[in-house]
Amino acid sequence: MSSKAESYIFKKVISIGTVCELTGLSERQIRYYEKRKLIFPERSERGNRKYSFSDVEALMEIANKIEEGMQTSELRKELNMKQSSSYDHAVKETMIRGQLNAYFNKRQ
Predict the structure, then answer these.
(1) N or C: which end of the chain has fewer CB within 10 A?
(2) What are the contacts of 41-44 at 24+ separation with CB within 8 A?
(3) Rounded CA gap, 86 and 81, in Å?
């Protein structure tokens, strides 16, 4: 995926009303998921919530899992594990790059 497409997906420009239309969720539900730290909108200068297409996808996933009977606390644990896993992967990748750079620089 190109960086333009990635920036488009993650750019926080969608209002809560539009998110409601796209997801079928109410503003109250979306605010609740934010309160439970499952979604992280940005705020405009006026304090309005702004979401990305990535947030919309996350909200759809959250709604589906809650409909299946999952609790928000379980979803939060799952989210923490995903974030931790992504962080661990990034750290390992950085360490490997550093080791490779050191090895190849040493050989020159």
Answers:
(1) C
(2) 41/12, 41/16, 42/12
(3) 8
Print pLDDT tens along the chain (108 aa).
555 666 788 999 999 999 999 999 999 999 999 999 999 999 999 999 999 999 999 999 999 999 999 998 888 888 878 776 655 666 677 777 777 777 777 766
Q: 50 has which bridge partners?
A: 15, 42
Strands 14-15, 42-43: pairing kind: unpaired
Contact assessment for residue 15 and residue 48, using Cβ atoms and an 8 Å cutoff: yes
CATH number, residue 33:
1.10.1660.10
Nearest to 18 by CA among 52, 42, 62: 52
| Single pTM value for the model | 0.67
Domain span holding position 95:
72-108
Cα separation of 63 and 58, whole Å? 9
Residues 30 and 65 both lie in one domain: yes
